[in-house]
Inverse folding.
C-alpha cells in the first residue's frame, strides 16, 4: 500500500465519503438505473488500500442510514467490494481498460450475491431501485421463478453501476497522472505515513471498530526468516538493492543484473540490454522503476518495458549511478560517482541541472516541502532545494553515512560513530539540531527506513530498530546468520520485510500468527515436551521439570506443583472432564 501525506489522505477520505453519499442521493432523485454510491469506496481502496476503502464504504452507508436505516445492513456489500478492488488492484487489475472491465464483472457478481440475500431479508426480494424493481415485475409477468426475478433485477442495476463506476475511476486516474505536474503541491499525493489517517478513522468510526492504544514495537524476533542466495534461486548470492512495484513484483539489483521475483521464483531479466550490473533501485508514485547501473547509467521501466535510458552520452555526469529519489516538485535527483544530476520526465527524459558541490552521493532522501538531503562518499550531509545547495552540515565533527526524512519532516542522519542525529529544517532552510540517538553495537549504518512506529537500521553488522515514536530506545533484531553488509530494506504488499545484503543475498521476514512465549517469559532454553492451559495458567512440561506462566501477564510463576516437579522429565499434561490436570513423568508417578 502506498503511503501519502496525512492531511491528503484525510481529505481524500472525506471527499470519498461525500462522493458516495452524493452519488446515492443523485441516483435516487433522478431514478437512474444504478446506485452511484461506490466511486469513493473504489477510489480509496485503489489509492490507500482495501481496509481504508472498506472504512469509507461503511461510512457512506452509515451517513445514508440516517435517511434509510436499512442502509446500515448493506455495509457488508461495501466492505466486500472494497476488499476485492483494493487487493486485486495491487495485482494489476486496473492497469488497462480490459482488466478494469473484467474487475467490474467480478465486483458485480459479489454485489449480486450479497445484495440479493439482503434484499430478500429487508425488501421481500425487491431491489429498492426503480429500474431493478421494474425488471423484477416484468419477469414476474412472464411467470419466471422468483429466484430468477431477484437475481436478474439486482444484476440489471449492479452491472451498469459497477461498469460505469470502475470505468470512471480508470479514466480519472489517468487524467490525474497527466495533469498532476500542473497541480499545486498540496493536491499532489506525496509519500508519508498514515498515522493521522488512522487516528482520524478511529475517532470518526470508533463505535464500529474498537480503538486500540499505541502499543510498543513489534517483537520482530518472532518473525519467520528465509534467506535467498545462490543455493535457492538467487545466483551469485548477493543483492545490492531491492524494490517493489505496485503490481506486487519484487526487483532485486545485483552485479549479475536485475532479477524479478513474483513470489515463487527469481528470474534474471537478461533481455534488457542497458541493464547488466545494478547498483540501486527506486520506484516513484507513478509506478516507474528506476534502475541505476554501475557502468551503463540509468534505465526507466514502465510495465516491465524500458522507456528511457540516460547515460554519459546524453548528459549524465557519470555512468555509475549510486542513488535516486524524487522531490515534491516532480523532479528526480540522480546521484552518480561524479556530480548530482536533476532530471525531469515530460515527453521524454532530460537533465535540467547539475550540482557539482554534491559529488559521489551515496544516499538521497526528500521531504514534502521540496527539500532533498544528500549524503556523499566523503561523509558530507548536504541540503538542497529547487535543485540548489542550501546548506552543508559542516558544524558537526562527524562523518555521515546515510539519512532519511520522517513523515513529520524531521531528518534522521546516521554517522560513523553509530549515532543518529535528528534535525529539523527551519523556514530559512537551515538545519536545526534536535537530538542524538545512540545505536548500541551497530557498525556502519548503511540505510534508514521507517516502518510503522519504528525506524529500521541496516548496517554492516546486522539489523536494529529505534522506537522513535515512543522513547527512542534502540533494539537489535535477531536475523540469525544474516548479519553482514545489510544495505537496504522494504516492505512488500503482503507486509513481509525484505533485507538486501551485498554479501549474503536476501532475507525475508514474515509475521506469523504464532508467538514464542516460553523464552519470552524469561525461561532458559529447554526442550518443551507438552503444553496445557489450566485455570488461567499455561504449564510447560520440559526435561527439567514443570514451568508455568500467567495467561494475562505472561510472567513466570511458581506454585506447589511446579516446585514438586523440579528436575523431573515431564512427558504429557492433560485436563480431564472434572477440571483436574494430570501430569505424566518419565521417572515419577503423579
Amino acid at each position: 500500500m502506498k503511503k501519502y501525506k496525512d492531511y491528503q489522505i484525510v481529505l481524500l477520505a472525506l471527499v470519498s465519503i461525500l462522493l458516495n453519499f452524493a452519488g446515492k442521493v443523485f441516483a435516487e432523485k433522478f431514478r437512474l438505473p444504478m446506485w452511484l454510491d461506490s466511486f469513493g469506496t473504489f477510489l480509496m481502496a485503489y489509492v490507500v488500500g482495501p481496509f481504508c476503502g472498506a472504512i469509507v464504504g461503511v461510512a457512506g452507508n452509515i451517513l445514508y442510514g440516517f435517511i434509510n436505516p436499512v442502509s446500515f445492513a448493506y455495509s457488508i456489500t461495501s466492505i466486500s467490494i472494497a476488499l476485492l478492488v483494493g487487493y486485486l488492484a495491487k495485482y494489476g487489475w486496473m492497469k488497462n481498460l480490459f482488466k478494469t472491465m473484467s474487475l467490474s464483472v467480478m465486483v458485480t457478481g459479489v454485489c449480486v450475491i450479497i445484495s440479493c440475500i439482503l434484499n430478500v431479508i429487508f425488501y421481500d426480494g425487491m431491489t429498492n431501485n426503480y429500474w431493478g424493481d421494474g425488471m423484477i415485475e416484468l419477469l414476474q409477468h412472464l411467470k419466471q421463478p422468483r429466484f430468477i426475478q431477484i437475481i436478474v433485477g439486482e444484476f440489471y442495476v449492479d452491472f451498469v453501476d459497477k461498469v460505469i463506476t470502475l470505468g470512471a475511476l480508470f479514466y480519472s486516474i489517468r487524467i490525474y497522472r497527466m495533469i498532476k505536474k500542473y497541480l499545486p503541491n498540496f493536491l499532489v499525493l506525496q509519500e508519508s505515513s498514515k498515522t493521522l489517517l488512522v487516528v482520524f478513522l478511529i475517532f470518526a468510526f470508533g463505535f464500529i471498530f474498537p480503538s486500540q492504544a499505541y502499543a510498543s514495537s513489534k517483537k520482530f524476533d518472532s518473525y519467520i526468516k528465509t534467506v535467498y542466495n545462490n543455493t535457492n534461486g538467487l545466483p551469485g548470492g548477493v543483492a545490492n538493492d531491492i524494490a517493489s512495484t505496485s503490481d506486487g513484483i519484487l526487483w532485486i539489483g545485483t552485479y549479475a543484473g536485475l532479477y524479478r521475483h513474483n513470489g515463487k521464483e527469481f528470474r534474471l531479466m537478461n533481455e534488457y540490454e542497458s541493464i547488466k550490473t545494478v547498483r540501486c533501485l527506486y520506484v516513484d508514485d507513478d509506478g516507474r522503476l528506476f534502475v541505476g547501473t554501475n557502468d551503463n547509467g540509468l534505465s526507466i521501466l514502465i510495465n516491465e518495458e524500458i522507456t528511457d535510458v540516460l547515460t554519459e552520452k546524453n548528459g549524465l555526469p557519470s555512468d555509475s549511478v549510486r542513488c535516486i529519489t524524487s522531490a515534491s516538485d516532480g523532479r528526480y535527483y540522480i546521484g552518480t560517482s561524479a556530480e548530482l544530476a536533476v532530471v525531469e520526465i515530460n515527453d521524454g527524459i532530460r537533465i535540467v541541472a547539475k550540482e557539482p558541490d554534491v559529488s559521489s552521493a551515496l544516499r538521497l532522501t526528500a521531504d514534502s516541502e521540496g527539500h532533498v538531503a544528500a549524503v556523499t562518499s566523503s561523509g558530507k550531509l548536504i541540503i538542497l532545494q529547487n535543485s540548489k545547495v542550501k546548506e552543508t552540515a559542516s558544524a558537526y565533527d562527524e562523518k555521515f553515512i546515510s539519512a532519511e526524512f520522517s513523515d513529520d519532516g524531521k531528518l534522521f542522519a546516521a554517522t560513523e560513530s553509530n549515532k543518529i542525529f535528528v534535525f529539523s529544517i527551519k523556514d530559512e532552510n537551515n538545519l536545526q539540531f534536535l537530538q542524538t540517538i545512540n545505536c548500541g553495537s551497530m557498525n556502519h549504518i548503511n540505510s534508514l527506513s521507517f516502518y510503522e512506529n519504528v525506524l529500521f537500521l541496516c548496517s554492516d553488522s546486522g539489523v536494529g530498530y529505534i522506537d522513535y515514536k515512543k522513547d527512542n530506545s534502540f533494539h537489535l533484531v535477531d536475523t540469525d546468520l544474516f548479519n553482514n553488509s545489510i544495505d537496504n530494506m522494504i516492505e512488500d504488499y503482503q507486509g513481509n520485510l525484505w533485507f538486501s545484503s551485498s554479501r549474503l543475498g536476501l532475507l525475508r521476514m514474515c509475521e506469523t500468527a504464532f508467538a514464542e512465549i516460553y523464552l519470552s517469559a524469561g525461561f532458559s532454553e529447554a526442550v518443551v515436551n507438552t503444553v496445557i492451559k489450566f485455570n488461567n495458567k499455561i504449564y510447560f512440561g520440559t526435561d527439567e521439570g514443570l514451568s508455568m506462566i500467567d495467561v494475562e501477564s505472561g510472567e513466570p510463576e511458581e506454585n506447589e506443583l511446579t516446585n514438586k516437579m523440579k528436575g523431573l522429565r515431564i512427558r504429557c499434561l492433560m485436563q480431564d472432564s472434572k477440571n483436574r490436570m494430570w501430569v505424566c513423568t518419565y521417572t515419577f508417578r503423579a
Summary: The longest strand covers residues 431-438. The first helix runs from residue 6 to 29. Confidence is low (pLDDT under 50) at residues 190-217.
